[in-house]
């Protein structure tokens, strides 16, 4: 046994002989002494960790090995050949220190001893740092970039970055970890085993056929046959087949189509399930990296983000101008600004237009989807009638409504003579979207004009956009059409160097402003190559990557390649878009290009080094919806119920939320049947996992067919689950949202401004933006209420402005709410519904939650509390608790008024500060345990939240919601003397002015404002206020809504 090991059976002392450490240590404790094997007394170096197993320092500063267990050999490895355990980190990090006599002796300092002692300690510290770095506790699979999500240990060393693969393989070998190799893995099932066996046999058969062919014809076939590449067929007035892909992947695309960048995305993003494609495409949903906050930063702060938007469908329409114009007017493009002189630039192909397509059927107009329309510039001839010119245009629509839109365009085209023709260009034209401050920089670096278009005005103008941070700075509808060079010729790209001595100063900004101001002065281009079928086909014949690599080997490393005749020009069309109403919202780029040219541009775009650092990020559908949410825009189709695509999305999400709710443990999910909303109301309004828009337009419940309710009894978790399952099973198979339609913001505003007031179309929804005023964050399926109604006043207003809505929509018809009763009296039959009036000042309670608003003077004078009531914010005594329990027990009796009939106004519950004098104390069951105002009743329900979360841009909870158009108009008309078209910022200014007026009126007590002015001030403050309550929760939050449009 070596001198550095310890053994229980050994007679040798544990302390080994050491040299006396240098003197001069200034330790306060006395040095410890130990006897060595020769009997001499030496100074022992004591490590910092005074625990068992800590190594002891050697004269050179290194530590000896720890004690080996019995049975281990002294060579450091076990007898069976298995490598030993990794060293203990506590031993590795131990720092040896010396405890010697002090360097000060007889009042004098021994300088040499003092320096030697400090040198010894520094060497020990350096050695400990070296050992700690060499013996790290982290494994290779744990060392991943910070942008990646954490993951568990992987038994395949190829699943870690390449630079860490050797280390991972070494660590697995040391720990005897069973590794996995995909090539040598055994089939896990009989089917996989048979497939592997068939693949092996087919490979042997192909090899034999090849050898047999060489034997019969040793010289081989020396003939060279050059064939023209097959040109894809584009049939007119019918749907076209998807692109022909590699035979290896053809069976995987039977029921769906891969995007051009599918293989690139599958390695870096979470895709749709193979058996459940989204809109007949395999679409990336979200990146594998952490992406929520980086997405926000890429849009507003720095960097860029890109999407492969090739799934957006493109429809071609061509024919005479008169026929094309008739088709577009049939799709709802009836605005005068499109067909008069103001729309001349759009019709000549100088700008693009974005709007809504509509469908007319059975004297009813419905919205199809948002679209973008681009005209091809007309080729003018002398003595030619303008109406007979042959024109072409592109319509880009969402894939969820492609079939419906294509059939509608085809139907309208057949009504014209001569008939325009329609083309399905879904697999002919792809697209890439970019957002962010560095999006223009990346776009200009990758999409460089071809030599044939280098002198064109649009190409030169595109190259002059250096320094442009936001595409929203460009004029509305700006676009650039030119031919670009293959970006692989310049790969890899060098980062754009910005000289610190020459920043982007006032002169460069002035030049950029001149370019932007003179943007629309040049005439439109005579033609666009992207509209030419032959140009798109030639652009698809790109040279292979192998041929480009061979060309690069002949040049200098990193040098760009020269463009040759084998490099065809690639036609592109870059569209700059922006928010129509919000000037602070950033813009975006949309690049249209041939389908097979998307992958080369995408690969080079993702690897372009930005001047701000890093590369452009990529996103999926979740990031698209997040950006629309942060901009305050609805995302189609999820935030636009009422359209056919929006209704289908809502029904699909209902099923997903229901399955998710059923998978959750009973103790962790909401029990919607037993939800207590206060005032004896029990149960959620509709299903908690759905936006029950059918509840908004439901008529009065017949008296002979009462709604079944479980509010009169307590339901346990098992019964609640069975009840929900029965609801899902017994639901009608028809679409419950089929008769609900969507009304655009422009149509809603026009109907609202008409004098006399025009009633809103029944059973329609309008999209709004919800902003929480104080606390709270709305989530999907949250319920939205208006402020509690006042009864007769509102009823009169509703009948005056909207008489048709009283019998169609569920407006406020009474001051009471239909709620289930709490506990039936003994011997009496509990009715299915009982009428319980709401608190008299519930409206003022909600209005008092507005911050920095002096609305207390609108409250009724506080009444004196009865002696038997319990005051708020006072410590509860034993008598108070007994009184509180008694109030809870007698609450049902007070609610039923002792006769089982509807209680009178005096028997209704009131908050303690508003109880009428001489009345009974409010029952505790009518008040929320949080002390928050009670939520309004079901007759005040006006809509649901489709998307809600914390908005990183505004720093508060926000949401996108859909409200009943009739009830939204009723709310805007409810407050007289208030402008119904003001925005939230204008409303905040009004609030400040009214608060200042109130302040001035407070100082001058003699000039008291009249009652009408008080009502106007109160109404201006309450405009667009609402109460938002998440599904399954009993507390509502105050918010303000604002109209938004697509």
From TrEMBL:
UniProt domain Pop1 N-terminal: residue ranges: 114-319
Compositionally biased residues, Basic residues: 153-167, 999-1011
Biased composition (Basic and acidic residues): 799-810
Pfam family of the protein (one): POP1_C
An annotated GO cellular component: ribonuclease MRP complex
Keywords from the UniProt entry: Nucleus, tRNA processing
GO biological process, one term: tRNA 5'-leader removal
Main subcellular location: nucleus
Compositional bias per record (Low complexity), positions renumbered to this chain: 55-66
Pro residues bias: start-end ranges: 913-924
Transmembrane segments: none
Domain POP1 C-terminal, first and last residues per copy: 765-1043
Compositionally biased residues, Acidic residues: 983-992
Polar residues bias spans: 1-13
Protein name (database record): Ribonucleases P/MRP protein subunit POP1-domain-containing protein
């Amino acid at each position: 046994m070596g001198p550095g090991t310890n053994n229980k059976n050994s007679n040798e002392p544990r302390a080994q002989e050491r040299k006396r450490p240098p003197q001069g240590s200034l330790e306060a404790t006395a040095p410890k002494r130990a006897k060595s094997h020769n009997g001499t007394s030496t100074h022992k170096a004591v490590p910092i960790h005074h625990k068992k197993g800590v190594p002891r320092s050697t004269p050179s500063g290194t530590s000896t090995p720890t004690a080996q267990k019995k049975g281990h050999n002294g060579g450091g490895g076990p007898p069976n050949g298995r490598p030993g355990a990794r060293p203990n980190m506590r031993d590795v990090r131990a720092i040896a220190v010396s405890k010697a006599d002090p360097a000060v002796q007889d009042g004098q300092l021994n300088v040499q001893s003092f320096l030697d002692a400090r040198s010894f300690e520094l060497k020990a510290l350096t050695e400990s740092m070296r050992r700690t770095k060499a013996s790290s506790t982290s494994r290779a699979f744990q060392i991943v970039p910070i942008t990646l999500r954490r993951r568990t240990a992987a038994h395949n060393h190829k699943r870690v970055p390449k630079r860490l693969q050797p280390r991972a393989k070494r660590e697995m070998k040391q720990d005897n970890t069973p590794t996995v190799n995909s090539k040598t893995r055994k089939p896990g099932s009989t089917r996989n085993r048979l497939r592997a066996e068939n693949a092996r046999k087919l490979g042997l058969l192909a090899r034999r056929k090849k050898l047999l062919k060489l034997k019969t014809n040793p010289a081989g076939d020396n003939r060279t046959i050059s064939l023209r590449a097959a040109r894809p067929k584009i049939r007119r007035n019918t749907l076209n087949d998807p692109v022909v892909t590699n035979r290896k992947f053809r069976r995987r695309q039977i029921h769906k189509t891969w995007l051009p960048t599918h293989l690139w995305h599958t390695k870096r993003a979470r895709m749709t399930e193979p058996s459940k494609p989204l809109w007949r495409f395999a679409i990336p949903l979200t990146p594998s990296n952490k992406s929520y906050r980086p997405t926000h930063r890429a849009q507003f702060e720095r960097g860029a983000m890109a999407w492969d938007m090739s799934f957006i469908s493109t429809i071609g329409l061509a024919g005479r101008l008169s026929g094309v114009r008739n088709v577009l007017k049939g799709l709802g493009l009836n605005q005068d600004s499109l067909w008069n002189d103001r729309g001349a630039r759009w019709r000549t192909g100088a700008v693009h237009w974005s709007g809504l397509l509509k469908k007319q059927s059975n004297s009813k107009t419905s919205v199809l989807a948002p679209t973008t329309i681009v005209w091809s510039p007309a080729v003018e001839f002398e003595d030619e009638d303008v109406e007979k010119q042959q024109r072409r245009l592109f319509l880009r629509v969402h894939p969820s409504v492609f079939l419906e839109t294509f059939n509608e365009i085809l139907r309208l085209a057949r009504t014209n003579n001569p008939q325009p023709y329609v083309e399905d260009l879904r697999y002919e034209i792809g697209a890439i979207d970019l957002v962010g401050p560095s999006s223009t920089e990346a776009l200009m670096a990758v999409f460089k004009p071809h030599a044939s278009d280098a002198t064109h005005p649009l190409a030169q103008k595109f190259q002059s956009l250096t320094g442009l941070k936001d595409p929203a700075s460009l004029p509305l509808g700006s676009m650039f059409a030119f031919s670009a060079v293959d970006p692989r010729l310049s790969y890899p790209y060098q980062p754009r160097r910005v000289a610190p001595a020459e920043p982007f100063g006032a002169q460069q900004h002035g030049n950029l402003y001149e370019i932007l101001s003179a943007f629309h002065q040049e005439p439109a281009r005579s033609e666009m190559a992207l509209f030419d079928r032959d140009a798109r086909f030639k652009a698809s014949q790109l040279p292979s990557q192998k041929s480009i690599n061979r060309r690069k080997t002949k040049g200098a490393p990193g040098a760009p390649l020269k463009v040759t005749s084998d490099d065809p020009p690639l036609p592109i069309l870059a569209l700059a878009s922006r928010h129509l109403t919000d000037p602070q919202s950033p813009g975006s780029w949309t690049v249209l290009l041939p389908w097979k040219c998307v992958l080369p541009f995408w690969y080079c775009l993702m690897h372009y080094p930005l001047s701000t650092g890093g590369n452009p990020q990529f996103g999926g559908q979740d990031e698209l919806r997040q950006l629309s949410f942060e901009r305050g825009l609805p995302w189609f189709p999820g935030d636009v119920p009422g359209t056919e695509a929006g209704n289908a999305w809502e029904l699909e999400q209902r099923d997903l939320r229901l399955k998710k709710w059923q998978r959750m443990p009973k103790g962790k999910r909401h029990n919607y049947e037993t939800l207590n909303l206060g005032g004896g109301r029990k149960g959620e309004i509709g299903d908690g996992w759905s936006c029950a828009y059918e509840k908004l337009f439901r008529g009065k419940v017949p008296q002979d067919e009462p709604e079944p309710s479980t509010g009169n009894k307590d339901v346990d978790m098992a019964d609640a689950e069975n009840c929900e399952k029965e609801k899902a099973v017994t639901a009608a198979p028809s679409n419950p949202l089929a008769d609900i339609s969507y009304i655009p913001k422009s149509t809603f505003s026009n109907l609202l401004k008409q004098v006399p007031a025009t009633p809103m179309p029944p059973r329609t929804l309008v999209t709004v933006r919800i902003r929480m005023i104080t606390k709270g964050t709305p989530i999907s399926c949250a319920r939205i209420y208006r402020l509690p109604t006042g009864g007769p006043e509102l009823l009169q207003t509703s009948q005056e402005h909207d008489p048709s809505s009283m019998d169609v929509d569920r407006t406020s018809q009474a001051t009471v709410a239909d709620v289930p009763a709490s506990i039936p009296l003994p011997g009496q039959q509990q009715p299915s519904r009982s009428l319980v009036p709401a608190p008299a000042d519930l409206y003022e309670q909600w209005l008092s939650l507005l911050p920095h608003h002096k609305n207390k003077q609108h409250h009724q004078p506080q009444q004196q509390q009865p002696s038997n009531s319990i005051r708020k914010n006072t410590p509860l005594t034993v008598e108070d608790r007994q009184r509180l329990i008694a109030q809870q027990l007698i609450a049902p009796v007070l609610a039923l008024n002792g006769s089982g009939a509807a209680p009178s106004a005096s028997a209704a519950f009131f908050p303690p500060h508003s109880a009428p004098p001489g009345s009974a104390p409010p029952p505790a069951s009518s008040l929320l345990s949080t002390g928050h105002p009670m939520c309004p009743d079901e007759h005040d329900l006006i809509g649901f939240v489709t998307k809600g979360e914390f908005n990183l841009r505004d720093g508060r909870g926000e949401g996108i919601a859909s409200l009943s158009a009739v009830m939204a108009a009723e709310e805007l008309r409810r407050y007289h003397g208030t402008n119904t078209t003001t925005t939230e910022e204008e409303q905040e200014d009004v609030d400040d002015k009214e608060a200042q007026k109130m302040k001035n009126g407070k100082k001058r007590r003699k000039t008291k404002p009249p009652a009408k002015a008080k009502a106007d001030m109160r109404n201006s403050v309450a405009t667009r206020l609402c109460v938002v309550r998440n599904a399954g929760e009993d507390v509502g939050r105050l918010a303000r809504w604002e109209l938004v449009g697509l």
